[in-house]
Amino acid sequence: xxxxxxxxxxxxxxxxxxxxxxxxxxxxxxxxxxxxxxxxxxxxxxxxxxxxxxxxxxxxxxxxxxxxxxxxxxxxxxxxxxxxxxxxxxxxxxxxxxxxxxxxxxxxxxxxxxxxxxxxxxxxxxxxxxxxxxxxxxxxxxxxxxxxxxxxxxxxxxxxxxxxxxxxxxxxxxxxxxxxxxxxxxxxxxxxxxxxxxxxxxxxxxxxxxxxxxxxxxxxxxxxxxxxxxxxxxxxxxxxxxxxxxxxxxxxxxxxxxxxxxxxxxxxxxxxxxxxxxxxxxxxxxxxxxxxxxxxxxxxxxxxxxxxxxxxxxxxxxxxxxxxxxxxxxxxxxxxxxxxxxxxxxxxxxxxxxxxxxxxxx
Length: 362
Prior knowledge:
CATH topology: Metallo-beta-lactamase, Chain A
Order of helices and strands: EEEHEHHEHHEEHHHHEEHEEHEEHEHHEE
CATH architecture: 4-Layer Sandwich
Number of helices: 14
Helix content: 25-40%
Oligomer: single chain
CATH class: Alpha Beta
Radius of gyration: 19 Å
Largest sheet: 8 strands, mixed
């Protein structure tokens, strides 16, 4: 049996593939399509896959959604997912009105991706009677089953996070480059010039740095979930707010004696220090952590504080930290001294596969 996660080259963003089942009859789901340039590399992979059970666009930030713009400009769909999860403006409005308990307005699908989804006739949010991928939807109260014995437990977003995005929706669309009158090319943050490496990180000092939470509305609207297959679990956290994830995980952790077991965590927001709190790491029982980012100078993800927090939360057990790009913000953790002191080893892609890394979950 196969259960694996692949991080595809998405520059500073996410393009995540999950595969499960028997080797000759694998099922697949995809989360996000990275930057605009990601589409060229992932297009043939998507076209060749047979059983794409679910395609998730987690939220509207450009480093997750811009790769979908050239896709939906094609006359015919290059692949056909059996299910699609995506909260566009109509779902934000529905969430807002559900909070207010008033009748919703008619849905408007003015952005490129929503129009493309309609053009391709993909079944959007069909697992939710309200059409909203939200932890406040009735169906999210239990794991959602996909073919091949995979289940998904939705952790984010809730109606409040979706409704909070409404006032800034147009601003976020402009930043993501998916307005109807914008070109397909999004700003490419890839830069080969990096600052030189400093000394080895001081884990104790970094872990003690006060946590300041992310307040970006688009990140708060991220679709995040736990996928479980044959008793193995992976949390795909997108860019969700740590506090939202913690609230969803707390009853699950309590039911398992105080910590929630995970076999792999795709760390939230490319390792941003504002999206994974020290408390989050104390709530999970996990020894494998994956980071998806090229470490562009704009953000320099993953933040050293995030890695320090996960090491400090569990200093003695052997841990594995996966990076899909060999880049300075990741490379500093290759230190043999640090690995020995904090019981971990770092895994990087092969030189000719920089940006793409597959991980066997179980």
